[in-house]
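Suppose a colleague, Dr. K., hands you the sequence of a protein chain of 59 amino acids and asks what its three-dimensional shape might be. Before reaching for any lab equipment, you can write down a predicted structure in token form. Begin with the sequence itself:
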Amino acid sequence: MNNSFTLFLNPLGAVRVLCTAFGTCLTRVFARFFGAGAFLAVIYGFFSIFAVYSRYFKS
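The predicted structure, expressed as tokens, is then:
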């Protein structure tokens, strides 16, 4: 069975594969250039900014 034919029959599976590949690629790039510590710091910073915004909009 040809891969492109399978992906054509199952677009949801193709999207899932693409998202997984993109996420893995992004994680590898972050890990390579910034290190795992900086990657975690970016995630932590994003969540803290989100928490500050939600607290600001609630009050």
